Amino acid sequence: MKVGLIGTGYMGYPMAEKLLEAGYELVVYNRTSDKAVSLSDKGAVVCETFKEACSLSKIILLMLSDFNAIKSLMDQIDLRSLEGKQIVQMSTIAPDESINLFEQLRAYDVDYVEAPVLGSIPQIKEKSLIVLFGGSQQKLKRLNKIFKSFAKKIEHIGKVGDAAAMKLALNQLIVGLTTVFSMSLGYVRASGLEVEKFMDIVRGSSLNATTFDKKFNNYQNRKYDNPNFPLKHLLKDLNLILDAFGRKSINIETLTGIQKVLEQGVESGLGELDYSALYEIVHANTPVNNSPSTDKRISDKR
User: CA end-to-end span of the chain, whole Å?
Assistant: First the structure.
């Protein structure tokens, strides 16, 4: 089966590698061609246009940055050429955006489903992503083997739009947990308290979340290069969350404060760094009383 993968950026490239490892005939396209060309050495067919990639594929996976990027590509082709094909939208977009695509493509007899994923580059390499599926059980059964190339768990959420909504609910936890942990850690360090003692208490309590340790070295060393998920994308997701939550009458005042923090981070030139770089806005790099034995912070040399 020929599978098309559109978008070979942060997530798309390692997903392409896993699909090739699983033995799929893979067709790839990326708007910036140099991000895809090396996949030809691994067995993929690298296309020069989105139209060409679609023509060679029966199942087309979309791993693009946002809804506008998807629409931009769709506007480049005659949607009638997609008749009988299956489009699998795997990025984080709003529920209404996903439903919009579903309705637009359905008019041309194009099968559209959504499958946003929870996890990042390390989880792709470990084949441990969580796929959130929006569409019928029958359609999921057809795609299950493809998803298992890079995922350990595939959750059927419901109809199109439901998986997109679930993804926003989960991503809100990423935004919130990362920010509030940064605040507590920053306060501990600025107060000259022992960071390891703080972490030992957190780890041994009901307050702990594994994401705290996941990014802990980034905060300690103030190093955020080699991002698994950049800060600018977290801001993009938060903007989607604010709109979607607001539509459901969820109080978003806490999130609007975090939005300002992320905006300041992007404006400060941190957008391409790992999203944990928001710590630099929460706790600016100023002298503290911590001793080297308890806080081995490296001076920020950005």
Answer: 46
Amino acid at 101: L
Span 172-213, pLDDT tens digits: 999 999 999 999 999 999 999 999 999 999 999 999 999 999
pLDDT-derived band at 295, boundaries 50, 70, 90: very low
Closest CA to 116 of 105, 127, 128, 129: 129
**CATH number, residue 19:** 3.40.50.720
* Owning domain of residue 108: 2-159
pTM of the predicted protein model: 0.91
User: Are residues 130 and 177 part of one domain?
Assistant: no
Strands 2-6 and 117-118: unpaired
Same domain, 11 and 141: yes
Partners of 129 in the beta sheet? 151
- Whether 132 is in a domain gets the answer yes
Are residues 154 and 106 part of one domain?
yes
Enumerate residues 6+ apart whose C-beta is below 8 A from 213: 199, 203
- On whether the CB atoms of residues 240 and 165 are closer than 8 A, the answer is no
Return the C-alpha torsion angle 214, 239, 273, 13, nearest 10.
80
